[in-house]
Every structure is written in structure tokens, then in C-alpha cells.
Design brief:
CATH class of chain B: Alpha Beta
Helix content of chain B: 25-40%
Oligomer: heterodimer
Helix content of chain A: 40-55%
Largest interface: A-B, 27 and 32 residues
CATH topology of chain A: Rossmann fold
Distance between the termini of chain A: 47 Å
CATH class of chain A: Alpha Beta
Number of strands of chain B: 13
Strand content of chain B: 15-25%
Radius of gyration of chain B: 19 Å
Order of helices and strands of chain B: HEEEHEHEEHEEHEHEHEHEHEH
Radius of gyration of chain A: 19 Å
Number of strands of chain A: 6
Distance between the termini of chain B: 25 Å
CATH superfamily of chain B: Zn peptidases
Number of helices of chain B: 10
Chain lengths: ~190, ~350
């Protein structure tokens, strides 16, 4: 009887722990990184990824047709619209939106977890950046957001709450390396 | 009064009389210990000699050889933080390794005339450690009298790729890389390119100012240049490092932008493409550039005071130097560049001789 009680008690603890354990969001390398809006934010992301020696491929203009989802274990979209960047790429905001949505759809269809990042702060918020983020948010499994980007209107916090997905904040751009290290287990 | 003093006074009076009767404009710059040589831009391109776009060039060489950096202010002389940051650098900084070349008034002809919007006085009095002196608030473009020709209806960049309003034909920052036999403003751009090539300038910064963030918000567009660092595509990695270091070390956040390939004639794009120099352009918010403000104060605005804007410009300079040293073998070491915190504490006036 005593043995049965101990087993029952152990199972109960395991069950309760299983139910209430906080789900930890993790990602696996290699990562695919692209820009959504052609600001230099995506390049900043790659500099931070280099700091933590993450295995990644960066293609700022990758199309869904050319994207091989089998080659990666996750996809990161760095959102930030830049008129200069779009001009340099010879595309407009509508073409860019269509490109990233098709890319995200293909990644999702192939089971890749998708992360949306906004790391350039309030200065990179605006109608086009917000449009891109909102178009991509249905595909997102997690958000990496600079605190300053969210401070004025909590747009990113609200998206994370509505979609019930984790949101990781960082204060300074270089602090993003801590978030990457945490979720990739580096 | 002894004989030596009398001679100095006579020379001063002579220069004053000549200045009064001559058309040329001489800005008030009082070099510090770091200045090792002085040249004119026409030394690099005689085609602008004896014109009003010829401009002083300050050379600051270290004891040891190393990298060379060109710092430009006054491309648009109403963008006050750019010119005063350059002057503060000349009057305070000391180069230990490598060389810094400073052009405080890149378009001296534009500095020689008041801002044509009429909102700000041409000469702004400030009380410095040596007494009263004047900062110059000039126009955006070469004086049309110096240019010597009427503006076209439309200014087409010589590449034929970009069109601007006609008066932009006199905007130095629409004329790069310039032409040897072009308009006066085009020759000015050509002379700067020649300097960069002759001096083997490794990297350069063209300091500018923009409207304030609030003014951009009114237009409800994503276009917002205030607090930004524009990088030639070849210089993006160095720019990112500078931006990350700036934020880490000072808490100052500047937005990074990449040169737009379809906006021809701009310094960061063309210098980077026509020379081996890594090119950057910085922007701080100047309330005097807000169209909605009728009586702007470019020096003591409560939200965007000049000391704040100069501080950011000079921190960008420091971070570019640090980033260059992280990425390349040849080094540039400079001491006594006024810091943001010092400028905020003591004011820009404390760093003018």
C-alpha cells in the first residue's frame, strides 16, 4: 500500500509539472534570415548573429520560388521599411510585401518556425513598416522586439498577446545576442 | 606699443580692409594644437582657384602614419551642427596616429550668403572662452552670383539617371562626383573627389542636418532622416558596428540607412563609388529646417539644442574611428574629441577657441 502511494504521489507530481511547466520557445540552427522592407536592420541582425556564432544564411531579396526550406530549421524576418533600401533594390513596398508573404507562406507550409524581428526602434516605425509586420504576423511563432519599438503603442505586445506567441524584448540592439543565445541554446 | 605689436596690428588692419573690399568670404576658425598644415581645396584642383567655392582645408597629422579620415561640414551651411562640429574638431582634437583632413565649410560660397528662407540671421553671436564670436548660418546652395549662370528648369544629374529641381544644380550634395569642366558647383564636387584620391582617404563623413522627427511625423510617411547615418553599400558593416557601439557606449540611437542607388549625386553614394574611400553621411535634427517653424532657434532650442546635435555628430565621428580600427590594420588614433556628455555639461561654446 505504501509503495502504491509513493508511485501515485510521484505520478501526480509529474502530471502537475507537465501541465503547468512553462513552455520554453527554442529554435534550431541553421537559420534563414531575410529583410522585410530592405532597411539595414537585417544586416544589423547578421552582425549580432556573427557575435554569437550562429549558423545562418542571409538573403535580403530571397523569393519563395528560390527558397529551399529543407536547408534550414527556422526563418527570421527582420522588419523595417526603408525608402532608400527599397529604392536601392529597385522594388516598391507592394512588391516587397508580396515577396515576404509568399516566402513566409512557403516556410510555414514546410513546417519551419518563423520569427519576426523589429530591432531598429521607434525611428523605424511607420506606415510601411507596420504594414509589413501586420501582413507577416499571422505566420509568426515568436517575436524578437527592441523595447523602444514597442514603447509608444505596444503594437508588438498586443500582437503577441492576441496570437498567444512568445515575445522576447531587448533594450539595446547588441542585447539581441542574449535573446539569440537563449532561444538557440548557444 | 612696441614695434612687433605695431606690425601685427597693421597687418590685422590691412587684412580687415582687404576683406571689406573683397568679395571673398573668410570664416572665423581658430585652429587648435592638433592642426599641422593648412591648404586650400584648389591645391587639389586648380580649376576652382580664385573662385568663391575654394575653401580652407585643415590637415591634422599624427606622429605615426596610419589611416586617413576626411571630415566634412558645411555642405549645407545652414545645417549648423555639421559646421560647428567640424570647427570644434579643428579647435580641440589632436591626432596621434594617422591623419584627419577637415573641411569645415565644404560649400563656402553657400556659407557666404544668408539662408534664403530668411528665418535665421546669417551670423549668430556666441560667447566663447575667448569672448564673442559668430557662427555662420548660410544657405543650402552655391550663391547664384558665384555660379555665374541661371538655374535650369530641371537639373539632370550628368549620369542622366536622376532629375532634381533646377536650383539643386547649385547643391553640392547633388553634384558628386563632379566634372572637371562642369558648373562651378560641379567643379567643387570634382575638387573634393580629387582630394580624396590624392590623399588616399580611407573613410569620410559628410555631416548634415535634417528636419526634426515631429516635422516628419506631420507628413505621415516613413521618410524620416533625423538621427541617421547613411552608408555607402560598401561601408555598411562599418556603419553597423559604429551604430552598435554608439548605442552601447552612449545610449544614443541612430538609424542606419543605405545609399539609394537611384538618387545620384549624393556624397555617400558617389564618393564611395568613385573613390576607394568608405563613405558616410550623418543627420541630426535642426529645428531651423522645419518648414512649419517661423522663428526657429538653431542654437538653443529646448528639445534639440546645438550642443546635443554637435555631441551626436562628434560621437558618430569617434565611433566611426573605433569601428575602422576594429576592421582594418591601419589605425587612426585621435584624442581630445569633445564627447557628448562634455558638450551637454559645458555647452558647445566651451569648445570654441
Amino acid at each position: 500500500m505504501k509503495k502504491v502511494s509513493v508511485v501515485f504521489f510521484a505520478l501526480a507530481i509529474f502530471f502537475v509539472g507537465f501541465v503547468f511547466a512553462e513552455e520554453v520557445f527554442t529554435l534550431e540552427q541553421p537559420a534563414f534570415i531575410t529583410s522585410a522592407g530592405q532597411s539595414p536592420g537585417a544586416l544589423q541582425m547578421t552582425v549580432v548573429c556573427k557575435m554569437v556564432k550562429l549558423d545562418y544564411t542571409f538573403e535580403k531579396l530571397m523569393t519563395a520560388d528560390d527558397f529551399d526550406p529543407q536547408a534550414y530549421n527556422c526563418a527570421i524576418f527582420v522588419v523595417g521599411a526603408s525608402g532608400k533600401g527599397l529604392g536601392a533594390a529597385g522594388i516598391d513596398i507592394d512588391e516587397e510585401t508580396a515577396r515576404v508573404v509568399a516566402l513566409a507562406q512557403k516556410a510555414k507550409d514546410n513546417g519551419l518556425p518563423i520569427v519576426l524581428t523589429h530591432l531598429e526602434g521607434a525611428a523605424r516605425r511607420g506606415a510601411s513598416s507596420d504594414l509589413l509586420f501586420n501582413e507577416l504576423s499571422p505566420f509568426a511563432d515568436a517575436l524578437f522586439i527592441k523595447e523602444e519599438s514597442d514603447a509608444a503603442d505596444q503594437m508588438f505586445s498586443n500582437i503577441a498577446e492576441e496570437k498567444e506567441i512568445p515575445i522576447f524584448f531587448f533594450e539595446k540592439t547588441a542585447d539581441l545576442k542574449n535573446v539569440i543565445s537563449e532561444v538557440f541554446g548557444l | 606699443m612696441n614695434k612687433k605689436k605695431l606690425i601685427v596690428v597693421l597687418i590685422f588692419i590691412f587684412v580687415l580692409i582687404v576683406s571689406c573690399f573683397s568679395k571673398e568670404f573668410y570664416p572665423d576658425i581658430r585652429p587648435g594644437d592638433g592642426v599641422t598644415d593648412f591648404k586650400w581645396l584648389s591645391d587639389y584642383f586648380p580649376g576652382i582657384k580664385e573662385t568663391n567655392v575654394d575653401t580652407p582645408v585643415y590637415i591634422m597629422s599624427g606622429e605615426a602614419t596610419g589611416a586617413t579620415f576626411l571630415l566634412m561640414g558645411g555642405t549645407h551651411p545652414g545645417e549648423l551642427a555639421g559646421t560647428v562640429a567640424a570647427i570644434s574638431f579643428i579647435e580641440n582634437a589632436v591626432v596621434k596616429t594617422g591623419k584627419v583632413i577637415v573641411i569645415p565649410y565644404s560649400n563656402l560660397s553657400a556659407a557666404s550668403i544668408p539662408d534664403l528662407t530668411g528665418k535665421v540671421s546669417h551670423f549668430l553671436p556666441v560667447q566663447t572662452k575667448s569672448g564673442k564670436r559668430y557662427l555662420v548660418f548660410g544657405d543650402r546652395r552655391t550663391d547664384i552670383n558665384d555660379e555665374g549662370i541661371e538655374d535650369p528648369e530641371v537639373f539632370v544629374h550628368p549620369s542622366d539617371e536622376t532629375e532634381y529641381k533646377g536650383d539643386e544644380s547649385r547643391n553640392l550634395n547633388r553634384n558628386y562626383p563632379g566634372e572637371e569642366n562642369g558648373t562651378l558647383t560641379s567643379k567643387l564636387a570634382f575638387a573634393i573627389i580629387n582630394l580624396i584620391n590624392e590623399e588616399n582617404v580611407d573613410f569620410n563623413l559628410d555631416m548634415h542636418e535634417s528636419r526634426t522627427p515631429e516635422e516628419y511625423e506631420k507628413s505621415n510617411s516613413d521618410y524620416n532622416l533625423s538621427y541617421s547615418l547613411v552608408c555607402n553599400p560598401k561601408a555598411l558593416e562599418m556603419g553597423i558596428l559604429a551604430m552598435l557601439n554608439l548605442e552601447l557606449e552612449t545610449g544614443i540611437n541612430v538609424k542606419l540607412e543605405e545609399s539609394a542607388k537611384n538618387s545620384r549625386g549624393l556624397s555617400h553614394l558617389e564618393i564611395g563609388n568613385y573613390t576607394n574611400s568608405l563613405s558616410f553621411l550623418s543627420e541630426t535634427p535642426n529645428p531651423a529646417q522645419d518648414p512649419s517653424k517661423n522663428n526657429p532657434d538653431p542654437m538653443y532650442d529646448s528639445k534639440y539644442p546645438l550642443k546635443h546635435r554637435i555631441g551626436i555628430q562628434l560621437e558618430i565621428v569617434q565611433m566611426l574611428i573605433d569601428s575602422y580600427n576594429m576592421l582594418f590594420e591601419e589605425k587612426l588614433e585621435v584624442e581630445k574629441i569633445p564627447t557628448y556628455s562634455d558638450l551637454m555639461k559645458y555647452g558647445f561654446e566651451a569648445y570654441l577657441n
